What we know:
This protein is an alpha/beta fold. The chain is about 45% helix and about 15% strand. It has a 7-stranded mixed sheet, sandwiched between helices. It starts with a helix and ends with a helix. Adenosine-5'-diphosphate binds next to helix 2 and helix 11.
Amino acid sequence: MLRVEMKMLEVFHVKHKNLGPVFSIANQKGGVGKTTTSINLAASLSAFDKRVLVLDLDPQGNTTSGLGVDKDTVKVGMYELLSRGEDLQEAIMETGCEGLYLVPATIDLSGAEVELVNLNAREKILRTCLQNYDGEPFDYVIIDCPPALNMLTINALTASDRVLVTLQTEFYAMEGLSQLMDTIRRVRANLNEHLEIEGILLTMVDRRNNLSSQVEKDVREYFGAQVYEAVVPRNVRLSEAPSYGLPVMYHDLRSKGAQAYFQVAQEMMQRESIAV
Ligand code: ADP
Ligand code: MG
């Protein structure tokens, strides 16, 4: 009986010890709201009293600076985890927000991308790193992926339970999606059978704009319930908050952007409780 229950648990989680579900925020296109979503979804979850760990897997380190961490002060970050075998625990930094923690990225990480290509089990390095973690538990892990279907993104997907795809509601929104879905399918077939598509999140939505509305309609028709009901509107507070090193709700709690990400977090927690 116990074995059956264990098996059922395995179905739903990659099951990293001490770590709740791991979500990759992915899309190989740049500028579609991955980083904005990683920061503000994570901060919203922590505002709902969850302990959240964000992994910045983009060498540009925009999540790192957006959470107020000075990259010049980083001693152990994502690069050292992937290329030097450092412990996750050594790399976790506090942010200015209660319950929200970060593994930072610096430009060194672009080197890891190259170094990983020559390693054995190179796709599983991040997963192994998370599996070995036995520090303070986290309720959620959010991975901000780089804008490429490269070895870093493959590592993220291999370590994840779910992938949340951000789509900017513009003319070419769905371009490249089939390639992303193929990659997800290949990771599921060869590296991580637990990987599920969490959903699609529409970002930079402007419902006064006909094109944005049409794209939203098309995406909802095509992907149905996979698309989050909550959408993220285009909101200037979201684009200016990173320059203060703050998630949007700490910059302007009443802004539409802050309210939108609270809704996204609630929908995520709801979907989670339905799935389990
Ligand atoms: P990605 O990580 O996919 O490259 P970002 O989250 O960095 O995308 O977003 C790209 C740019 O658009 C950034 O300058 C960001 O501040 C801005 N941006 C993202 N989402 C919104 C939004 N909902 N409203 C206004 N600006 C946004
Ligand atoms: Mg980004």
